Amino acid sequence: MTFILGLTGGIGSGKSAASQWFEAQGIQVVDADIVAREIVEKGQPALTQIKDTFGDWVLLEDGELNRRALREHIFKEPNARQQLEQITHPAIRSAIIQQLANATSPYVILVSPLLFETSQHQLTHRTLLIDASEDLQILRAAQRDEQSIDQIQKIIAAQMPRIKKQEMADDIVLNDGHIEHLYTQLETLHQQYLDRSKP
Fold first, then answer.
1. Which of 90, 127, 167, 187 has the greatest number of CB atoms lying within 10 Å of its CB?
2. Does one domain contain both 114 and 167?
3. From CA 4, how far away is CA 50, in angstroms rounded?
């Protein structure tokens, strides 16, 4: 069985930069965010379930999911998030398992911002947390996403606390500044993961 690494990190931590570095080394990456978008595409069973649960208003005229309307609804209705997750989480999980099983690189990475929150870490053999101070997270996310600091702080508050992620992760890389420093730390871990993935 292929060695599976779970990669996670909060908003603005540098998780994407890390996963891109691994991809450049020829390691296949399964991105939970991309999977989450794919399972609600037009024609997918999960989208039909969402429409049946919430009503036709969740669809745009072209039959695609109206993400904005659904997001706003979830913010207003506390129970709606739970209903949505009951549909999407099992579909995401089975698609992730399928993609991980199909990987052909020496090891494979599951990138997920909610790796621990959604118990996706149970699908992996080891976990890596890309960590950064909250101040840096806010700074990076504000520059990248054009979101207000208030919005970013809300996202951080909604995510699992840093300290809890640190306790749960097997490996932690502190992405506190220079990108080259991040890559150096990743290179060391990459060699360890290659060793672990040998039969």
1. 127
2. yes
3. 31
Encoded tokens for 61: 């005229």
Token pair, residue 185, equals 């730390």
Residues linked to residue 59 through DSSP beta bridges, in sequence order: 65
Domain count, the chain: 2
Secondary structure class of 143 (helix, strand, coil): helix
Show which of 104, 126, 144 is a domain's final residue.
104
Amino acid at position 47, single letter? L
What's at 13, amino acid-wise? S
Count Cβ neighbours within 10 Å for each residue of 29-56 and write b for 16 or more, e otherwise. Answer: bbbbeebbeebbeeeeebbebbeeebee
Query: Mean pLDDT per 10-residue run, the chain (199 residues)?
Result: 94 93 98 96 96 96 94 89 93 96 97 93 97 89 80 84 95 92 97 93
Range of the domain at 185: 1-27+108-199
Q: Helix, strand, or coil here: 63?
A: coil
Domain stop point among 81, 104, 127: 104
- State the pTM of this model: 0.88
Place of tokens 């039969």: 199
Distances in Å between the alpha carbon of 125 and those of 78, 132, 182? 34, 23, 22
Strand partners, 172: 129
